[in-house]
Amino acid sequence: MELQTFSSLHLRQRVHYGDGSQATQAHLEQPKVQAARPHRTMGTRLQLYNLKVEYRKGSDNPADYMSRHPVPAHAPTKNTCATKVAEAYVNFIIQNKTPKAMTLDETLKDETLQKHRVLKLAHEAHQGITKTKALLREKVWFPNIDRQAEAMVRNCLACQANTPETHNEPLQMSDLPDTVWQDVSADFYGPLPTGEHLRVIVDEYSRYPVVEVIHSTSANSVIPVMDKILSMLGIPRTVKTDNGPPFTGEQFSKFAVYMGFHHRKSTPLWPQAKTTAERFMRTLGKCLRVAHMANIPWKQHLHTFLREYRATPHSTTTSPAELLKCRIHTKMPSVSTPLGPDEDLRRRDRKAKAKMKTYTDTRRHT
């Protein structure tokens, strides 16, 4: 209705000067209804003319061609020619991208990629893995390029023969002593923030630790503490130490001869030579650091740690305190009486040491 009203107004304005205000008849396809505000505005403007509006049914009023002509679904656009050219080009690329005589698998295995040749050229100067991969990244790329470059360098006989690599010797695991407190390892821990040291002795058989606080590492301070420990647990057959100052002096040598034990010196600065004592040192250091962080007196915490450590089973599934149940060795000759479960203990110890050796040798590539 709005369109028809506006068309009547437009028609009258176009012929306003030509025919004056002659009567004009407009036909509506809807009956008279309450007009909206825009319709009333245009009706006011049409009052200048002698206009007659009458209603006519849609069946008696044929539609004009422009308002009822359908738009085709595929209407031609301005770029029809360009679109056809683009589609033809895309179809050409799709059809000719891969030769019809080759399948996809053959394309993936195509030797024209020359991967092996590129790897050989990159490693022609026999550079290391890092340099070879860096050179490859500057020029080419293909899947698994790093892995294939590493494999080529590692399989190069010339590179492996001329690469200096030092390997540690395989571990030599020692057997358990014949009885408890027969072979012991001794060492120092410290100095502590208070200026004190800890004198540590560990039994090789039972792993039973003894820790004493000393104020100096001189022979005059070490020998009395050593004598005190031997008076409680007996005289061992062998005492294993490093080449520290208190152990290389004449006083300690005389003390060893007097007590009747063999003093065995290990390689300086080589913790692997006396692993029993050195491994306990790491655990002892953790105990002291925990006491410092928890604001606990370290000497009090040390006694708690030793009590728990001596009661905890180790790799032989037996605790050090349980294994130390034996009579004290003195200067008088005596016959050692082996413990009851000694064979089972040795079997478990050998099993634990074999596992340790396998792990360490694998990590060291020996």
TrEMBL record:
- Single GO biological process annotation from the record: DNA integration
Top-rank taxon = Eukaryota
Q: Which InterPro entries match?
A: Integrase_cat-core, Integrase_H2C2, Retrovirus_Pol_polyprotein
Q: Where is this region: Disordered?
A: 332-366
Using the record's annotation, list all stretches that form the Integrase catalytic domain: 173-328
Q: By what name is this protein known?
A: Gypsy retrotransposon integrase-like protein 1
Organism placement in taxonomy: Eukaryota, Metazoa, Chordata, Craniata, Vertebrata
